[in-house]
Amino acid sequence: MAERSHECREQCWRIIKKRLPVLRWLPKYSLQWLQLDLIAGLTVGLTVVPQALAYAVVAGLPVQYGLYSSFMGCFIYCLLGTSKDVTLGPTAIMSLLVSSYAFHDPAYAVLLTFLSGCIQLAMGLLHLGFLLDFISCPVIKGFTSAAAVTIGFNQVKTLLGLQNIPRQFILQVYYTFCSIGETRAGDAVLGLLCLITLTVLQQMKNSIPRAYWMERLSVRISWLVVWTTATVRNALVVLFAGLMAYSFQVIGYQPFTLTGTTPQGLPPFQLPPFSKVTPNGTVSFGVMVQKMGAGLAVVPLMGLLETVAIAKAFASKNVYQIDPNQELLAMGFTNLLGSFVSSYPVTGSFGRTAVNAQTGVCTPAGGLITGALVLLSLAYLTSAFYYIPKAALAAVIICAVAPMFDAKIFYTLWQVKRLDLVPLCVTFFFCLWEIQYGIIAGVLVSGILLLYPIARPRIKVLEHETVYIQPASSLYFPAIECLRDIVHKRTLSESQLRNVILDCSHVSNIDYTVVLGLSDLLREFQHRRLSLVFVCLQAHVLQVLLAADLEGFYHFPSLKDAEECLEEELCGASEALFDGSDSLLPTSGIIQ
Predict the structure, then answer these.
(1) 324 is a domain residue
(2) What is the pLDDT of residues 95-128, one digit of tens each?
(3) 538 partner at 20 to 30 Å CA-CA among 18, 84, 425, 520?
């Protein structure tokens, strides 16, 4: 009894450790880890604050909602995440999705967060993370490249200080060029300066040699200063742009379009809005859900896709394992609880995760420092956000999304497999129209390309006195008609009646429709007094065919046995006798 109780306690402890990964690394936490996590957390925090403000603009929400969305993931992921590097928060892609499905309304954005969290939690508990396997790499690349173009061009109007530009991409391009004469000189000059500065700092960071720590002390310090400056470049650019705008404000002249007043203080902890009061009446929960439509599927799935892809990439690079279903639970709880503090949907950020990893973070505890820095910004710095020029935030966004456009993928697919360019291009161009249509179209095209080889498998045919037919893969119901057509053309036409050997060495699975099709073929061969025999059947396939009790079904362990049998013209008989040998068996027989 005591042993059973001890085993139950151990089992419960294993389950708790699996669901709370913090219990795996916390007992081993050290002072050295604390130092590295502290540095990483501060560095990421200096990156996330300006990006959060900028991404809120992409989402079509007031800038404070970017900060509202940036701290809950830091705390929740510390407890539930399985990657030491991943940081959760607002991202360019998720902000674009929120802009499409929340209609620039905070109430819809927060409700979308709550529902996305519920869906992700349910997927995690049901272990449905495998659904992401059906979204192919070309579809993902097409979507991210289109998102980069859409988000980047969307900021051009802000960079130039243009007003009243439509949101739809095609119209946006047209009206931006039509309104180019209305460009505000101050915004344009500042925006270009910020773009140049960010680009130069990024190139400086990329030029740092990997082995710089082997140089003398002065060189190491120089490279460290360059690396630190380039890493927090977003914060520095926004800070200097804000100081410049404040200086102009003091002298009574303002050439820039400013962010404006931002509510100070932490967001209230409250239920997400399950209805919305408008001047025309109350919008019910059902109507709000109906308006969000496809967003309730696209947002949770894309959030999961982005997070798991990032976690897998850094886990592979830094040699550790992640649990995709646990990542789903971490994201689900983050969005669910985030909706109580007015967050919009969040996911893993590749850029901030890269910064986190490069600064040597040891555990997810680095996120606690980042979250605390965001909370301090909300509590004490929001009044300073008034002076941040919108052009500077636009420059931050453009530089953040530029690497997402992968021009090389088009050339790579052209060289490797040109057919994969079809879902890539379909996804890319449809996403420029509407995001949900692009993703759906890309997945459908990928599905067709996936199913076509199943419906039309490669079938090898060798014609002699006996026709040898070998399918190159498993047989499923869409493929049986193709197989029957080939058999009819090659063996059952009036001009050439010949026996057939069907080599099933590559057939690892069949379904009931295939069994019926093979049964019809066997009857046709018997009617023509010809033989259709099977060779090299795998155990599972043989078991299915024997269970079907097909009339005239004979099978052989090898091609040689089948050829010898057909040469002696014994396979066409209703009873199989092979000169005392048991190579040829009736339908109830089993080849050993």
Answers:
(1) yes
(2) 999 999 999 999 999 999 999 999 999 998 888 8
(3) 520
Q: Is the pLDDT of residue 76 over 90?
A: yes
Q: How many domains does the chain have?
A: 2
Q: Which domain holds residue 148?
A: 20-128+135-404
CA distance 246 to 485: 78
Q: Is 181 found in the same domain as 279?
A: yes
Q: Around 331, how many Cα atoms within 13 Å sit in the side-chain half-sphere?
A: 38
Indicate the pairing of strand 88-89 with strand 347-348.
antiparallel
Structural Rg of the chain based on CA atoms: 32
Give CA–CA dist 345/471, Å, rounded.
Answer: 48
Q: Are 341 and 240 part of one and the same domain? A: yes
Q: Report d(CA 43, CA 3) in Å as an integer.
A: 50
Rounded Cα–Cα distance for residues 63 and 165 (Å): 19
pTM: 0.78
b/e burial code for range 185-222 (CB count within 10 A of at least 16 → b): ebbeebbebbbebbeebbeebeeeeeeeeeeeeeeeee
For 240, the token pair is 């200097």
Q: Is residue 220 included in any domain, yes or no?
A: yes
Give the length of the chain.
592
CB < 8 Å & 24+ apart, contacts of 440-446? 440/294, 442/136, 442/138, 442/139, 442/142, 442/143, 443/134, 443/135, 443/139, 446/134, 446/135, 446/136, 446/138, 446/139
